[in-house]
Each structure stands twice: as structure tokens, then as C-alpha cells.
Amino acid sequence: MAFAIGKSNPNFLPDALSASKVGVWEWEVVGDRMRVDATCAALFGLPVRQAEQGLPLQAASDAIHPDDYPLFQRQITDVLARGGLFVAEYRTCPSPSDTRWILARGRFEVGENGLVIHGRGIVIDITESKKEGHVEEGAVFLTMQSEGELSPLIRATDKAISTYQELEQMGAEGGRLRAVARPLLIALGHELVRSTGAQEAKGEPQPKPMH
Q1: Where is the PAS fold-3 domain (predicted)?
Q2: 81 in a structural domain
């Protein structure tokens, strides 16, 4: 991996992972610059300062678990072709001895030229909840083509993400408010995972799978 935190120390756990389980990311597709916060950087083994300033998407995707990486690459191609909302659950390897399960939630915007120009969203570290329950064998990627068809849970999650990201612009005061908003995002992320699994078990219609 080109950029890594703690690669020389397999027992290293970035403070960001113990302090927060919610990371924020933003990707300018034109120019390929992805900016992420400290938590997101830790989940992907990225140097914080460089990640906050912006790195190519490949710097982060290099940390995706080898078994999940091919599917991730196919879904990136798909989302760049259509834009819209998505939810993904997959593994990252921020260090050789550490595997994290994350839930990613985001939105990709289409410009006037019909091309995807910008993406933004969050990643939630759900490793502990995975350890408490069963762990699937690989990644899950779902996409919702129409916002009108989204469930109240997904709409609530999108609003919470938007609020969390707006608070980033408020400096120290925003930091205090993000500490209040963070548990809600984590709870919503866990509920998304549980509801998706419950619907699959019941055979209920799911958001369109990404192939």
C-alpha cells in the first residue's frame, strides 16, 4: 500500500479509531482528490495530514480487503456511470494485523454534463457489532436509484450525514456538536446493517443490488 499508518507496528491502533467510529469523506471526481477526516484515514491506513488535504481514491482503495476489492472496483465504475445514493459494507486492512468492517453511506452528484462530479458521505466502523453477531464472507453493495423509494430509516440517515458534515464548518463549536451527533450516526449505521439482514432473511424486496 502506498500510504499507511502504523505499518511497522502491527499492534498500532490509531487514536482516531478509539475516539470515534464515524469518519467523513469527500471525493472530487474531476482531478481525483479524496479528502477524509482522521477517523476515515485511520480506517484506511492513511496519513492524516495528507488525507485531509486530499489523496487519489486509489490510496484508500488499496486498503480494502483483497477478497472485497474486485467487487469494490466494479461498483465504483457503476456509481460513476449513474450517480445517486448507495450503501456498502466491506472490510479494510489498515495494517497487516488489523481488519475492520465498515459501513459506507454516501451520495454521488451528477453535473450538468451528465457526468458524476462529486461524492460525499461517511464510513462507520462496525467491527465490534460484527464480532458480536455473524460475519459475512464478503462485501455487500446496495444502491438506491430513486430517492422517492427510500425507507424512512435511509432518509433519516442521509439527513444525519448532512447535519454531521455541516457541523464540520463550525470550528470548535461544531466539534462539540459533532460529539453529540456521532452516537446517532453510529446507531443509524447499525440499524441499517440489522434492517438489511432482517429484510434478506424475510425475503423482502431490497434496494437494487450492484453487480
Answers
A1: 35-122
A2: yes
CA-CA distance, 141 to 89, in Å (whole number)? 6
For residue 149, the model assigns a pLDDT of 56
Alpha carbon of residue 52 to chain centroid: 15
Distance CA 148, CA 153 (A): 13
Question: Torsions phi, psi of 116, nearest 5?
Answer: -70, 130
CB atoms within 10 A of CB 128: 11
CATH code of the domain covering residue 68: 3.30.450.20
End-to-end CA distance of the chain: 26
Flag whether pLDDT at 200 surpasses 80.
no
How many domains does the chain divide into?
1
Which residue range(s) make up the domain with 45? Answer: 15-148
Q: Is residue 7 part of a domain?
A: no
Inside any domain, residue 139 = yes
Please, is 15 exposed, middle or buried when counting C-beta atoms within 10 Å of its C-beta (0-12, 13-18, 19+)? exposed
Q: What is the pLDDT of residue 136?
A: 54
